[in-house]
């Protein structure tokens, strides 16, 4: 799938559902896929007006799109969401699990309710979306592609976010397991994950924080939601790639913050 090139199965354009796509990274992913010829199911829970506006914007660009509301923390609503999308478009070819919640959980303030909230959206909803969308993909000869959006910080955790990082840290294992389970039902179904680095800074981020984010990468630039969208596209397009967890972080997870100079170390024989 290249930008601007219509991709079809016969005369039918493929369908992508992107959870949490009313704004931020999910919206960028949905827009990117729409530009590549996908019909788009825009999902939101609270940001329903933004989802409807975005769907109308996509229609204005010539993309078939519709907005769908669901609370992904409730399994029954997840199942209903997948069924409504399938009924509306007639198929589901791509699922991108982008919906997520994020807030600090210092150990001194940790409570069960917060932990459950993070796992319900960041972990269990992903499993349920994959489960029900996968059931529809099994019925299709062409199968489908599932992309889970995890987080680079599961490799290098930061302080005070243990519950969030744990909820995202389950996704690589879940991705690999689902890749096996769904391929056993239909070998044309692939499941992969993207682990984004910092691709969005808070609107009030200082120049110091912005520069620190740049310095923490090997490529010495800020990430962008489009970087994530391009990785999603790659994983959708690549028929021989499954069970992969792809960091998209400018090298941040492997970079210690300083380059190692071997010349300053004596060789011992």
TrEMBL record:
**Example of a GO MF term:** oxidoreductase activity
Protein's recorded name: SDR family NAD(P)-dependent oxidoreductase
* InterPro entries linked to this entry: NAD(P)-bd_dom_sf, SDR_fam
Whether Transcription counts among this entry's keywords is no
Q: Name one Pfam family in it.
A: adh_short_C2
Keywords, A to Z? Oxidoreductase
For this chain, the family text in UniProt reads:
Belongs to the short-chain dehydrogenases/reductases (SDR) family.
């Amino acid at each position: 799938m290249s930008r601007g090139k219509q991709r079809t199965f016969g005369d039918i354009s493929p369908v992508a559902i992107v959870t949490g796509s009313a704004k931020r990274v999910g919206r960028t992913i949905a827009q990117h896929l729409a530009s590549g010829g996908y019909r788009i199911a825009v999902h939101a829970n609270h940001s329903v007006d933004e989802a409807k506006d975005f769907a109308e914007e996509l229609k204005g660009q010539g993309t078939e799109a519709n907005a769908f509301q669901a609370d992904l923390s409730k399994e029954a609503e997840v199942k209903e969401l997948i069924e409504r999308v399938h009924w509306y478009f007639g198929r589901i070819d791509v699922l991108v699990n982008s919906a997520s919640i994020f807030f600090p959980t210092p150990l001194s303030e940790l409570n069960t309710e917060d932990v459950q909230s993070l796992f319900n959206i960041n972990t269990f909803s992903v499993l349920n979306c994959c489960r029900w969308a996968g059931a529809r993909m099994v019925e299709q000869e062409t199968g489908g592609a599932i992309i889970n959006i995890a987080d680079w910080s599961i490799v290098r955790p930061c302080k005070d976010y243990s519950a969030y990082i744990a909820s995202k840290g389950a996704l690589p294992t879940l991705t690999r397991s689902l890749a096996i389970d769904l391929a056993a039902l239909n070998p044309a179904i692939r499941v992969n994950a993207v682990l984004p680095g910092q691709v969005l800074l808070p609107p009030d981020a200082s120049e110091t924080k912005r520069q620190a984010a740049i310095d923490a990468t090997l490529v010495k630039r800020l990430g962008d939601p489009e970087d994530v969208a391009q990785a999603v596209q790659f994983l959708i397009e690549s028929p021989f790639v499954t069970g992969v967890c792809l960091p998209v972080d400018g090298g941040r997870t492997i970079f210690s913050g300083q380059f190692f100079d071997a010349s300053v170390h004596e060789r011992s024989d």
